[in-house]
Amino acid sequence: MFPTMIGTVVIAGIVGYAAExxxxxxxxxxxxxxxxxxxxxxxxxxxxxFGIGFGSPGVNAVASSVGALIIVPTHWRRRR
Length: 80
Hints:
Number of strands: 0
Number of helices: 3
Structural class: mainly alpha
């Protein structure tokens, strides 16, 4: 269980860094990594508590990190 959590954090950090460097987001590197780790932790704990997920923990980490990067910044962005 502990190695899975550490792997989830590492994968989420890599996804956050890669998303920022590729131009997918414009939040800042640290902010993107924090958003990804938060989304991955949420998916990890949902997987533990309810058994809902995509199968492997790695796929869950990637999918939840990308989902968090899409949802969180657009939710807090002001509408013009």
